[in-house]
From TrEMBL:
Its cofactor is heme b. It catalyses: Cu(2+)(out) + L-ascorbate(in) = Cu(+)(out) + monodehydro-L-ascorbate radical(in) + H(+); monodehydro-L-ascorbate radical(out) + L-ascorbate(in) = monodehydro-L-ascorbate radical(in) + L-ascorbate(out); Fe(3+)(out) + L-ascorbate(in) = monodehydro-L-ascorbate radical(in) + Fe(2+)(out) + H(+). It is found in: Apical cell membrane. It comes from Tyrannus savana (Fork-tailed flycatcher). This is Plasma membrane ascorbate-dependent reductase CYBRD1. The keyword Transmembrane helix applies. It comes from the Eukaryota. The gene is Cybrd1.
Amino acid sequence: AIIVYRLPWTWKCSKLLMKFIHAGLNTIAMILAIVSMVAVFDYHNAKNIPNMYSLHSWIGLTALILYSLQLVLGFAVFLLPFAPVYLRAFLMPIHVYSGLTIFATVIATALMGITEKLIFSLRNPAYSASPPEATLVNCLGLLLVVFGSLVLWMASRPHWKRPLEENTKVLRPTGGTPEGTEVESTMTNRSNADKSDLRINTEAARKQNLKLDEAGQRSTM
């Protein structure tokens, strides 16, 4: 969802379509996060394990709450056509920064979670003995770090930023006039029409002057 605006082959699509894709992916992630949270509490209650005692659980629940607020505010301000332009411009940097912060927090939560699981689950051999399970999960943690770093790098590169609508030729995938180009087309047609009218008026004035000159010459003769 973060890099959906950063992919060059999506710049030809309308920005409204990319907004729906961005919101849809975030909604799916939110649903999966809620299902996972419910599953964790059910498992803890079934096994008589205390809830919300570890740093992993604190940061995870905080990330879920912030993510839900981010999703609701994103829908209300940027997707629905009710928020004024100045409010969107003011909240956009905050929206981007908070999204990247929540993403980094989720990566950290996952790393703490898999480490905690290994410490509690690996008894014989222990985690410190580096059994194959520990090596596999450690490699998974490294892949999570690489994945998070790549996403944050792509999101922070200025040349990967989606160009402004007026600086690109935007093509809607379903055909029709893309967002932001209808006004430009209307202004171009109006300008061409004005130039055509000016040429017609100039030509008519020139012919009128010729007729007056001819009439003056005949009157003199």
